[in-house]
Amino acid sequence: MGEGQESKTLAALAEAGEQGHWLVLKNLHLVTAWLPILCQNMKRMQLHKSFRLWLITEPHPGFSSVLARSSLKIAYEVPQGIKNNILRTYSSWGTSYIEKLNPTGSRLFFILACIHALLQERRTYIPQGKLPDLSKLTHYSMLGWSKSYEFNDTDFSTAIRLTVELMQTPNIQIQWNYLTGVCCDSVYGGRIENIQDLGILDSYLSQYFVDEALTHRWRPLGMSNSLPSYSNFQVR
């Protein structure tokens, strides 16, 4: 769910309710103001006995209490940590996509998966109060965000479409400034509202979008082993 998808959702709801299909609505915490409309439409519908509606949301104080009381609730806590985050990314995209990438595309996919994991996991450390001089930030002294930003799978997918797939073109030279602009100005940076947080994002990108990241010398996240140059992988 997201802004502008409400009418399509109601149409899908009407079809699923009439024909007895199952419907899944994700990220409802982004559209809590719209949930009363969803409830009203549900009340007016003649629902097929096989119809099921799955609602997926993160905890939010504005979530409809009516929906919450009338639903069977299942709580799932996503495993924390950068490693688990990267594993989820690879599992969700699957081997069929990743193994089609050339060596450069495979490396870029991993770089973006690392960045995505870092940006999401840093939300654990908010709020941090007054931030220091950004020019003095190092790899070991970066702080969390000033607020919780909704970095999600759609952001990662957009970054992949705009970067990795472009790099599938034979003999193309990587323009790190372009990749930084995509992530900092368009994708992740588009959600950030604080100039200091933008500086932190830029600091991360400046350490990952470098020529060394495409070589065996690169050691992201303190890894002691070098990254493989092939795209075949196995999630463990």
From TrEMBL:
<feature type="domain" description="Dynein heavy chain region D6 P-loop">
    <location>
        <begin position="1"/>
        <end position="74"/>
    </location>
</feature>
<dbReference type="InterPro" id="IPR042219">
    <property type="entry name" value="AAA_lid_11_sf"/>
</dbReference>
<dbReference type="InterPro" id="IPR004273">
    <property type="entry name" value="Dynein_heavy_D6_P-loop"/>
</dbReference>
<dbReference type="InterPro" id="IPR027417">
    <property type="entry name" value="P-loop_NTPase"/>
</dbReference>
<dbReference type="GO" id="GO:0045505">
    <property type="term" value="F:dynein intermediate chain binding"/>
</dbReference>
<dbReference type="InterPro" id="IPR041658">
    <property type="entry name" value="AAA_lid_11"/>
</dbReference>
<dbReference type="Pfam" id="PF18198">
    <property type="entry name" value="AAA_lid_11"/>
</dbReference>
<feature type="domain" description="Dynein heavy chain AAA lid">
    <location>
        <begin position="139"/>
        <end position="218"/>
    </location>
</feature>
<dbReference type="Pfam" id="PF03028">
    <property type="entry name" value="Dynein_heavy"/>
</dbReference>
<dbReference type="InterPro" id="IPR026983">
    <property type="entry name" value="DHC"/>
</dbReference>
<dbReference type="GO" id="GO:0007018">
    <property type="term" value="P:microtubule-based movement"/>
</dbReference>
<dbReference type="GO" id="GO:0008569">
    <property type="term" value="F:minus-end-directed microtubule motor activity"/>
</dbReference>
<dbReference type="GO" id="GO:0030286">
    <property type="term" value="C:dynein complex"/>
</dbReference>
<dbReference type="GO" id="GO:0051959">
    <property type="term" value="F:dynein light intermediate chain binding"/>
</dbReference>
<protein>
    <recommendedName>
        <fullName>Dynein heavy chain region D6 P-loop domain-containing protein</fullName>
    </recommendedName>
</protein>
